[in-house]
Structures are given as C-alpha cells and as structure tokens.
Design a protein that fits this description.
Blueprint (H helix, E strand, L loop, with lengths): L21 H7 L9 H14 L12 H8 L3 H14 L2 E4 L3 E4 L21 E2 L9 H18 L11 H13 L9 E4 L2 H12 L5 E6 L3 H9 L3 E8 L2 E2 L1 H11 L3 E4 L13 H14 L2 E5 L27 E6 L11 E4 L2 H12 L7 H12 L1 H26 L13 E5 L5 H10 L2 E2 L16 E5 L4 H16 L34
Parallel strand pairs: 3-13, 5-6, 5-8, 8-9, 9-10
Antiparallel strand pairs: 1-2, 4-11, 6-7, 10-11, 12-14
Helix pairs in contact: 1-3, 2-4, 3-4, 5-12, 6-12, 7-8, 7-11, 9-10, 13-15
Length: 513
C-alpha cells in the first residue's frame, strides 16, 4: 500500500476517508529499542501525538504488519500497542476497516460562555489584543474631525471602503513588496469580517477547507457555522510540515485553505520563505484558493517583518491568493478596520456579498484608520519595544513561578504557546477564573475537540506587573490542586522544546492505566 499523509476529512457524522501511512507514523515515533516494555512506550508516544494535534482524530492507523516493518519491530509488539490504545480510549477498531484514532471520553473543550460576562477584577488573558494609547486616539480624532464634516452631506455608504483608505492599504502592500492597486482592496470591519465574506462567496456547505491545527478560534468557528469540512494540517513548535500541506491539497483538493504564516496564532511560528513558495505551487496545482491571514505580520520582535505571502508566487501566480489583515493587533481592536487583497473581479463580487449584510463601514472609523496608517512607522516602533519588554516579563515570571511549564520564545506575535506537561488546561482555566485570571485552554484553538489540553496560549499584551500578577495567580491555582478527573493519566514523550532561556529538559512519561 502506498504511504499517505494523514489529514482530516471527517464530516459532521464523524465519517472519514483519511489514512496515516506507516512510514510517516514511524518517523514521528521515538526509537523503541531499549525501551521496556516497548509496546507501552510506543502507545504513550502515539497518544501524545494525538493530544498535541500532530495526528488528527478519526484517522486510520497503519495496518499492524506495515507498521511493524516500518519500525523494525515485531507484529506482536504493534498488536500490543493498538490494544493498549484501544483500552485507554485513544483508538477504536471497525470491523473490516482497521484501527482509528480517538480520544477518551470526557476530553472535550470547555465552554467559553463565561467570556460573555466579563468580571472587572479578572486579568483577561483570553484575548491577545493590545490597547491604543489614549493620547494617540485623541490626536487622531482631532485630526479627522474636519474631514468627517466633509462627509456629513453624503450618504456615507462605501461598500468597497473609502477610496483614500483603499489607496493607503494598497500602498502599504506595495511598499512591503507586493505591487497593489486600490481596485484590489476591499475595506472590511476587521479581518474576521473579511474571512466570513470569503467563506460565504467561495464555499458551500460540505466543501473541504484546509485549516491549521491549532488555529485562530474565531476562524474555525466561522468554518463550522458555514458547515464546511476542515482538513487539518498540524503546526508544531517547530512550524509546518509542508509535505503534509502538499499532500492535503493534492488528495483532498479543498476549495480553500486558511493559513496564518506570519507569527502564527497561537504558536508564534514564522513560515520560511522556501516553504511559502512550495505551498503556493501546491495550491495552484490543486486549484485551491489560499486565504492568508497577515493580521500579525508587522508584530516582528526578533526578525524583520516578512514580505506578503503572495509576493513569493511565480509571476502571474497570485490569482488565487486572498490576503486579509486588520489594524486590531498593530493599533486597536476597537477600531474594527480590516481589509482583504484579491483580484479585482473577486473584490467586486465580495463587495456585493458585503451589501447583503451591511452597506459599508463607519466613515469615522475609516478616517481614523487613515490617520493612524499615515503614522504607522512612528507608532509601531514603540509598540514593538513595549511588547518585547512584556514578553520578557511573562517568560521570566513563568520560569520563576511555574518552572515545569515549557515553551518556545516566538520571533513575533502576541503570545506564548505553553506546554503544561499534563492535560489540565481546561480545569486550570476554570479554577483560575476564581483567582481572577481569565484564560482559555489550548482546546479552544483545536480543529478537533479535546486536543491541546496540555496547552495554554498566554498573551503578553498587558503591562509587565499585570503579567507577573497573572502568573502568580495561576501558580496559586495550581498549588491549590485541580480536580482528579483533569489529571487522568496521559501519555507524554521526550520533548525538544525548552523554556525561553534555551534549555531542553526531557519529558517524564506520565503513568499509564
């Protein structure tokens, strides 16, 4: 049987046609030589890969004989591995169709309805969104007031966006290395609005779309509400496996792929240039629209800000690339100004799609955005320096108060993707709220429910003292103990990721029952 990459094609009934190849799985597993007993060691490793999203749910595992050959071990050992996975709930078998990945009962993401009733005393780490300095907003309002008066005698409806703002956004793309004209720009009410418009126009219920795992939760929710079938591709602490992306595009032929290549949310990874070119070529071969979220592209803390993803395409190869962005991360989420860049003909269709839901964005907000974009160079530099200080404060506080947690220091973006060492994230987030910290478990960022329970996304968008206090409160929550059900035995394997100071501690394997 040909070796294939694993990618999710499950519909709402949980059916799937995806298979994990024996050679691919073997490459992901540690060498069982010397481990006693080997079958338990391998079962722990596979369950850890499932929990961390590197192996998707409802994927058919390789046949026992094939995996035994790939691992250079006996079929008896692999049989014992699969038996243990089934006993612990990480796999199940279907008569005549093999063994499939699963999750034990009870591993589902926690509700986020508590976010709808915020508590004034809680430190909010559930949203990675910086604020805008008060004086900056006051100055911008004073600047745009006369211009707003000029628009008072017009209808104020601009489905495409104010012409001058479209021109400013186009100029921004051009300066970053992607020649753009205003006709290629649609101004939206944030990047999420842009994505929703694209999904509504290009996709229909049941269509397959590629999404990274983990990914931005609101984007995943938009796909669910559109009744799309997600084809998940993993993003780990070391980044993307482009071979899996290429395989997913080739085999699933998805209608659309949503990627966050610039300081990925939540991992903070930055996709290398050569990988971008490969993804572009693969998408062109499969006829897949690429929706590239560049909301965080300018939050470059340790590297230069990357050029637009579409600039890496071969000449004439940007026709199926849609780039979305916003001012939420670089300026202020309350401004609700975003945009998309796409071929002019598609922009016209999307503007028509937009009219069906709203007639255009606020003229005041767009004029404010125009004024702030004109000062982007002046405003961004101090913001980046502030974020570097806050990132350092968060990393130092975690190392001091919760040294068992590990992470990779991201080169940009707004948060750390922290490994807790055990699947307690949902229980911790519930208990932490009682201690005045609002934070979401890693499961909230997963394409499949129940995974990333050993992860937290912790933003560094607050002042250093506030971040230190938040970490202290989380440490206090841990010291008070978590419910026994949240500490059920889970597989852990060795890890190469270390704390921000560069250590790479080995992982202890949790008990297996």
């Amino acid at each position: 049987m040909a070796d294939t990459h694993a990618f999710p094609l499950a519909d709402r009934a949980g059916r799937t046609d995806r298979t994990l190849g024996s050679r691919q799985l073997a490459a992901m597993l540690p060498d069982p030589a010397g481990a006693r007993p080997a079958y338990r060691h391998l079962a722990q490793a596979i369950s850890a890969l499932i929990l961390d999203g590197r192996i998707a749910l409802h994927v058919r595992l390789p046949a026992e004989r094939e995996l035994a050959t790939a691992l250079s071990t006996s079929r008896t050992t692999v049989t014992a591995v699969y038996d243990l996975l089934r006993e612990s709930g990480y796999a199940h078998s279907r008569q005549g169709s093999g063994t499939w990945t699963a999750l034990p009962e009870g591993r589902t993401p926690s509700s986020v309805t508590r976010l709808l009733t915020p508590q004034d005393t809680a430190i909010d780490l559930a949203r990675a969104a910086p604020g805008l300095p008060e004086q900056t907003l006051v100055d911008a309002l004073a600047q745009v007031a006369p211009r707003l008066a000029e628009h008072a005698h017009t209808p104020g409806y601009h489905p495409y966006g104010l012409p001058e703002l479209r021109a400013a956004v186009a100029g921004r793309f051009t300066r970053r290395g992607l020649p753009t004209v205003p006709e290629q720009i649609l101004v939206t009410s944030g990047a999420q609005h842009a994505l929703t418009l694209v999904l509504g126009l290009l996709c229909g219920p049941g269509d397959r779309v590629v999404a990274e795992n983990p990914s931005y939760p609101n984007a995943l929710e938009a796909m669910r509400r559109a009744r799309l079938r997600t084809v998940s591709v993993p993003v780990t602490d070391t980044g993307w496996d482009v071979e899996i992306i290429e395989s997913a595009l080739r085999q699933a032929v998805p209608r659309l792929a949503y990627l966050i290549p610039d300081f990925h949310n939540p991992t903070g990874c930055l996709m290398p240039e050569e990988e971008r070119a490969r993804v572009l070529r693969a998408a062109r071969r499969s006829g897949t629209w690429l929706v590239v979220d560049e909301t965080l592209a300018e939050i470059a803390l340790d590297v230069s800000a990357p050029a637009p993803f579409a600039s890496h395409a071969a000449p004439g190869g940007t026709g199926q690339v849609i780039t979305i962005g916003s001012m939420s991360k670089t300026h202020w989420g309350g401004l609700r100004i975003g945009w998309l860049r796409a071929p002019g003909r598609l922009v016209a269709e999307l503007a028509g799609q937009r009219v069906a839901t709203d007639m255009g964005g606020s003229v005041l907000d767009q004029l404010l955005a125009l004024a702030l974009l004109a000062r982007a160079g002046e405003l961004l530099s101090p913001r980046l320096e502030q974020l570097r200080r806050q990132r350092a404060a968060l990393a130092a506080a975690l190392a001091e108060h919760i040294p068992q947690w590990t992470w990779q220091l991201p080169p940009g973006g707004l948060s750390l993707w922290v490994d807790l060492g055990e699947p307690v994230a949902s229980a911790l987030s519930e208990r932490a709220l009682g201690n005045g910290v609002r934070i979401e478990s890693g499961a909230y960022f997963a394409t499949d429910p129940g995974i990333f329970e050993q992860r937290l996304r912790i933003p560094y968008t607050m002042p250093p003292d506030t971040l230190r206090e938040a970490v202290h409160r989380m440490a206090t929550t841990l010291a008070g103990g978590l419910p026994p059900s949240s500490r059920r035995p889970a597989a852990r394997t060795g890890s190469s990721e270390g704390r921000a100071r560069g250590l790479s501690p080995g992982r202890r394997a949790a008990p297996w029952s």
